[in-house]
Amino acid sequence: MEYTTIGIFDFIKNPEKLELLNKFNEKLNVEKNKIVFVYSAPKVGSTSIISSLRLYGIDSLHIIHIHDEEMLYALTQIKGITVNEIILYYKYLGKEVYVIDVYREPIERKISAYFEKIGAYHFNNFDEKVNTYNVEKVIHRFNRIMPHIANGDHFIDKFNIPIPKQFDYVNKYLLIENNGIKYIKLRLRDSNIWGQILSDIFGFKIGIVKDYESANKPIKDLYTNFKENYKIPKNLLDDIMKCKYLNYFLSPNEKQDYHHKWFVNSDNYFVAFTSEQYTLYDELTLENCHLDYIQSNHYMDEGCICKACSLKRESIRNKINNGETITINDKVYHSEAKNELLTNRVKKLNKMNSVIPNRVNGRKNFTQEMSNIVNGRR
User: Fold this and answer.
1) What distances in angstroms separate CA 338 from CA 7, 334, 374, one per listed residue?
2) DSSP state, 268?
3) Rounded Cα distance, 33 and 214, in Å
4) Which one of 41, 51, 159, 292 has the minimum C-beta count within 10 Å?
């Protein structure tokens, strides 16, 4: 079914816009009927959702991870279209469209965003070098810029949909249908029940994996040291508690607990950068940054659907379903999965050679020996 309603699909009246959207679709080659946009700000837990959906739903879902139009251009080299236009475009094509966003508490999100680019951006150095820096120096820099980093919320600011007067603190998520598109809002603090929420929404079991944590990166020692020593200045905490996003997504009791959590870890008054000072800081930092910031191995599951990756994906799903601990080696990267499959095949062949008896006289019962191996009797 194709939607032909003019209004929400205004772009169909613009041939140039429609051509760009068609070009975008050609690059993505979306063949599945269900398409999921994880359209969120960075550092809120979205990569975990991407990897989890790929592990459990890659056969039925086409999954796109996007933060903004800048990231959109980096992925496709196409300018002149917005993420919201792309979302509506797929509904216009008759796809079943879902959009997922996540809310994360502001202080934790700011710290995570700071450490995401702490080397290349904030200190113009390699992460491995910054990992040895004095933590007080790193804390001081963070406090100077803290009010200006990791602000905003896609669900409220970018989706352009009507939202309820308050978040659903009982069910711990929102599901809003607008223009036939299902918009889902989760909170990182509820990640322990994301699997249940998403399983109910999509109609099949989804297990959630943790993914791409700062504790596993080259700056992990400094990151751990920072978290153990950081005390937020009281005036900055007061400003945080006025945040409109925090006051929407947290219940009164949750806000009280959040304030108490940080108040017991608060410190004296601190003068942060003004907006003008931060703008200058940002300009100079970008000018001085000579290191390319490239995130490698961003996802636990890259999304390849070859046999090797599918087998690796099944192995990880079984571990999650059995309650086993997922390690850093449990990932679906095509090159690694392919090598692992080849290695396992060689091992199996070696095992076959070792269990089939070599006889000087008489013929081997090859069929029986192969049956024993396949059925696990060898």
Assistant:
1) 48, 6, 22
2) S
3) 35
4) 292
For the residues 194-223, what does the mean pLDDT come to? 85
Rounded to whole angstroms, how far apart are CA atoms 232 and 239?
A: 11
Q: How far apart are CA 72 and CA 222, in angstroms?
A: 32
CB atoms within 10 A of CB 212: 19
CB 245 within 8 A of CB 109: no
Residues 101 and 238 grouped into a single domain: yes
Asked which of 257, 288, 319 is the last residue of a domain, the reply is: 288
Rounded to an integer, the average pLDDT of 43-69 is 92
Burial class (CB in 10 A: 0-12, 13-18, 19+), 180: middle
Contact 116, 223 (CB under 8 A): no
What range does the domain containing 252 cover? 10-288
Buried b (16+ CB within 10 A) or exposed e, 52-63: bbbbbbbeebbb
Q: What is the DSSP letter of 167?
A: -
CA pair distance 114, 239, nearest whole angstrom: 18
Q: Which of 225, 260, 288 is the last residue of a domain?
A: 288
- pLDDT score of 273 more than 50: yes
Among candidate residues 153, 201, 149, the one with its CA nearest the CA of residue 174: 201
Q: Return d(Cα 141, Cα 219) in angstroms, integer.
A: 16
Same domain, 202 and 282: yes
Give the pLDDT confidence of 335-364 residue by residue, as tens digits: 666 666 666 666 666 666 666 555 445 555
Task: Tell me: do 331 and 245 sit in the same domain.
Answer: no
Q: Residues near 170 by Cβ (< 8 Å), separated by ≥ 6?
A: none
Read off the pLDDT band of 230 (50, 70, 90).
Answer: very high
The SS3 of residue 178 is strand
Identify whether residues 163 and 14 lie together within a single domain. Answer: yes
* Number of domains the chain contains: 2
Q: Distance between CA 116 and CA 119 in Å, rounded? A: 8
- Same-domain status, 267 and 335: no
SS3 call for 37: strand
Q: What angle do CA 334, 340, 343 make, to 5 degrees?
A: 140
Helix then strand then coil, in percent of the chain rounded to 5, is: 55, 10, 35
Task: Label residue 7 by pLDDT band (50, 70, 90).
Answer: low
DSSP letter assigned to residue 304: -
